[in-house]
Amino acid sequence: MADSKTHPKTIQEPIRQLEVYREAEVVVVGGGPAGVSAAVAAARNGADTVLIERYGHLGGMATGGLVILIPHLSDGTDRLVIAGQQKEWLDRLEPLKGVVKPPPDAIGSSDPKLIERWGSYRFFVVDGRIRLSAYVDPEMLKCVLNDMVVESGVTLCLHSWGCRALMDGNRIIGIAFESKEGRKAVLGQVIIDATGDGDIFASAGADLDATLDPKLRSSKLALVFRVGNINYEKFRAFKGKETQTTSIYETGSEESSYAKLIGELNRLGGFTVTMPTPREDVVWFNNWIPDLSCLKVKDLSQMEVETRKKMLLTHRFYRENVPGFEDSYILDTASQVGTRGSRRLIGEHILTEEELRAGTLYEDTIALFPPLTSNASPEKPNRCIPYRSLVPRNVEGLLVAGRCFSADLVANDILNLIPPCVAMGEAAGTSAALCAKEGVAPREVDYSILRKHLMGQGVPLPEHP
Ligand SMILES: Cc1cc2nc3c(=O)[nH]c(=O)nc-3n(C[C@H](O)[C@H](O)[C@H](O)COP(=O)(O)OP(=O)(O)OC[C@H]3O[C@@H](n4cnc5c(N)ncnc54)[C@H](O)[C@@H]3O)c2cc1C
Question: Cα–Cα distance between 428 and 422 in angstroms, integer?
Fold first, then answer.
């Protein structure tokens, strides 16, 4: 376990020249949902693009974090509100049997037979109508994302950790990264920080906010794990009908034996939220670890050790008490710590909860997202994300995509899901390519041209206000 003492002592690192590994038009740091989408969009729009990812695979939380629920691509009608590259993931996963989702002709339906069929997948039915949501196989998704990146011509640098921004005054001109080859530089006209934690914009001196609200989901870490060889039918029969299929928490039928068991496991400190996967014999356990920071080595180390202890307790309890788990085993734990929130950019626009809930339209809207627990209506309209929430106030040449975008705590918490992050990435990458081609700064990009490009890529967007 890491030492808890602080070490004020410092040591001078020798000044050195960095070898320039590559010069490109667009450099994306972080290969999660936002970063992959940004890199693919930039390359498809003609930019020479480099993608830097610290691990050996792409997908971030959606693969390495075992976060395999991709929810809310439609709004209660048969329309998709998130499509573009997010839909492409699902289309490419289908022939690989890497996804479970309702078929296209079921989307928006309130047919009781279809509701019965799809209602047991949490988030597939909202307010009595079927939504396009999906559970994906993380290993297949890694393969799909590799294909998308390689086919679009992105130069992929895996096992490469982006360390810091390289600056010329207030303009970012590249990044330094560490790998087995040592410390090197990649230079670019536009840099996109898609690290989730804002590693690059923090070192560039961009204004940021790193406060977290302990009441919100985004303040909690996790170590997700999967359990294999379960009998799902037996488990489902014991659990009873979920009373609330839009809740992240396990409900079971009220007063059921399962609900009582969950109460007992909660008291013991175990994890009680199971989610389905594309495989009937595998479930994943989501969890929420409070009061630890994803930016501190000590906290991260403590969380890896303590959460595995809780995982063992949880699995033993399920095996001994819950029908369907008798012969189960722990299949795997997430290779990446589950991080929901950390630093947030203070951008040209800080998206607020009020704007989000009101469905405020912007002339630079680059993505839509539906209300989570009700279908879209004039009272509860689809939510809009403005491009300016990806643009730092005080650093040039930089865009930010994904969960560290500029929003207040609640708005960030609401949009901190895979589909909006993919959509932000697609917008940032498209904009970066336009900037590189036209020689303009990210904050000067013509919104109407950017939106036209996005719509051409299958991104659903509203008309201007
Ligand atoms: C336990 C848990 C459950 C969740 N449940 C859901 C859910 O059910 N549905 C849903 O839609 N969302 C869910 N989320 C949220 C979702 O995972 C995030 O919103 C989404 O993954 C954010 O995407 P991103 O690309 O911004 O960041 P990330 O997914 O965190 O990706 C960041 C990428 O950058 C890389 N990286 C980071 N720093 C560096 C660096 N310095 N150099 C190089 N590479 C770097 C990382 O390795 C990673 O690949 C959950 C999150 C957690 C943790």
Answer: 10
3-state secondary structure of 271: coil
Distance (Å, whole) CA 419 – CA 136: 13
CA distance 58 to 48: 19
Ligand 1 binding pocket mutation candidate from 21, 28, 67, 274 (most atoms within 8 A of CB): 67
Q: Identify the band that residue 254 occupies on the pLDDT scale cut at 50, 70 and 90.
A: low
Instruction: Look at ligand 1, atom 17, and give the residue with the nearest C-alpha.
Output: 61
CA-based nearest residue to 341, from 267, 415, 273, 250: 415
How deeply is 327 buried, as exposed, middle or buried, from its count of CB atoms within 10 A (0-12, 13-18, 19+)? exposed
59 C-alpha to center of ligand 1: Å?
A: 8
The 10s digit of each residue's pLDDT in 453-464 is 999 999 999 987
Predicted TM-score (pTM) of the model is 0.96
pLDDT higher at 87 or 256: 87
Domains of the chain: 19-65+141-214+342-456 (3.50.50.60), 221-339 (no CATH)
Whether 418 and 401 have beta carbons less than 8 Å apart is answered as no
Spatial separation of the C-alpha atoms in residues 373 and 123, rounded to whole Å: 9
* Longest distance between any two alpha carbons in the chain, whole Å: 69
Q: Atom 40 of ligand 1 has which residue's CA nearest to it?
A: 162
